[in-house]
Amino acid sequence: MAFDIAQFLRTNKTMAIWAAFFGLVWLANYYGLFGLVFITYILCFLFNGPIESLAARTKLPRTLWAAVIYIVFVTVVLLLVSSVVPKLGTESTAFLKKLPDTLETLRKHLDQWAWLAPDMAAPISKVKDYLALEALVGVKAETLFTLAVNSLNQVTTYISTFLLGTLFSFLIMLDFPNLRAKTIALRDSRLRDIYDVTARSVVRFAIVVGMGFRAQMMIAAVNTVLTAVGMYFLGIEPVMLLSTVVFFCGLIPVLGTFISSAPIVLVAVNTTGPAHALWAIVMIIIVHTIETYVLNPRIVAAMFKISPLITLMILYVGHKLFGLWGMVLGVPISVFVYRHVILGTEFQLPRPTDAVAGGPKPGAASPDRKD
What three-state secondary structure class fits 251? Predict the structure, then answer.
C-alpha cells in the first residue's frame, strides 16, 4: 500500500499544524527576524493595556491614546539616549583602557595565592591562562580593532531592530481592533482548522511569554538600582557602565547573575585589591538574596518557580538552538510547553495587577477564562 501524505496529514492534523508553527518560528530566528518580531510583540503587550484603559475611562478615541503613549515612550527613550549614551561611551572607553591593567593586577594576586598555597598552584595557573586578554576576547590583541568594528555593527543592528519594532507595534496598536476582528474571522475561513487548533494555545503562549518577560524586566530594574547603590558606596567605578551590564544580564535568569558579577569583581580587584572584591561579592550576594526571597515570589509568583539546575539546562539548550533569544525566553516557553502542552494543566495566569501583588487573588478569573 502506497504512503498517502495527504491522509497522513489529515490523521495527524494537530501535530502537523504545530510543527508548521514552530517551523515558522525557527525560520524567523534563522533569518534574523525573531528579534524584530519579539520586540514588536512585547511593545504591543506592554502598551495595549494602558491604551485600552485610557480609552475606556476618557471616552476619547483609542488611536489618540495610542499616539500619545508612543510619543511619550519615544521622548523618554530619546532623553535617556541623549543623557546616558555619551557617559556610557566615556566609561566604556576608560574601562577598556584599564582592562589590561586590571587583568594583570588580578594575575599578580593569583601568583601570591599560589605561593601561599602550593597545592593550588596548578588550578590557579589554569585560571591565569583564562584571564589573558586574548583568551577573554577570543582574538589576538592586534585584531581588537576588528572586534570593536564588529561590535559597533552589532549595536547598529540592535538599534535598527528596536526602531523598526517600535514602528511596527505603533501601526498595530493604531488598527488593533480591526486586526483582532480579522484574526477572529479566520475561524469562518478555509484556515478554520488551523485557527481551531492553535488560537487558544497561541494566546495563552503569548500571555505567558509576555508576562514572564515583563516580570524579568521588573526584577532586572530593581537589581540594577540596588547594585548601583552598592557600587556607589563601595567606590566601584564606572557605575553607569556596570549598571547597564547588570540590567541586560538580569534579563537572563540565574546565568545572568554570574555574567554581570564578573566585571564588578574585576574592577573591585583593580581598585583596592582582593579585600575590596570580597565586599563587592558580599554586596552581590545581598542583592540577589533580595531577588530570590522578595522579588521572585512577589513578581513572578508561582508560575516560574522551577529548579535552578533545570533553569541552567534550559538556558544551555536555548542558547544552542536560538542564541541570545533562547536564553532570554527559554524559561517561560519551557514552563508553558511542560505545564500546558505536556501535562495539560489549566493553570491560572496572573493578571497585570497580580504580578506585583503576589499572584492572583483567590477566586480570581484567569485572563483566558470564558465566563
Answer: coil
What type of residue sits at position 130? Y
Q: Decide if 299 contacts 355 (C-beta within 8 A).
A: yes
Could you give the C-alpha distances from 70 to 17, 65, 133, 221, in angstroms and in order? Answer: 35, 8, 43, 21
Rg (CA), the chain: 24
In the block, residue with C-alpha cell 508576562: 211
For the ranges 11-15, 43-47, 159-163, the lowest mean pLDDT is seen at 11-15
Q: How confident is the model at residue 303 (pLDDT cuts 50, 70, 90)?
A: low
pTM of model > 0.70: no
Q: Computed from CA positions of residues 157, 159, 163, 166, in that sequence, does the dihedral angle turn out positive or negative? A: positive
Count of CB atoms situated within 10 Å of the CB of 326: 19
Rounded-to-integer distance, Cα 333 and Cα 335, Å:
5
DSSP letter at 142 equals G
Percent of the chain residues past pLDDT 90, beyond the cut: 11
- Range in 7-11, 74-78, 243-247, 272-276 the model is least confident about: 7-11
- 200 contact partners, CB below 8 Å, separation of at least 6: 368
Cell of 76: 523618554
For residue 86, say if its preceding peptide bond is cis, omega within 30 degrees of 0. Answer: no
Q: What is the dihedral of CA 117, 274, 286, 249, to 10 degrees?
A: -100
Choose among 324, 338, 138, 333: nearest CA to 248. 324
Q: How far is CA 280 from CA 261, 265, 284, 334, in A?
A: 9, 6, 6, 33
CA distance 226 to 232: 10
The per-residue DSSP string of 289-320 comes to HHIIIIIIIIIITTTT---HHHHHHHHHHHHH
In a 10 Å sphere around its CB, with 0-12 CB exposed, 13-18 middle and 19+ buried, how is residue 229 labelled? middle
Check residue 347 and report its DSSP letter: P
Mean of the per-residue pLDDT values of the chain:
75
337 compared with 235, residue with greater pLDDT: 235
| Cell representation of residue 353 | 495587577
For residue 75, give Cα distances in angstroms to 2, 79, 149, 299: 64, 6, 29, 28
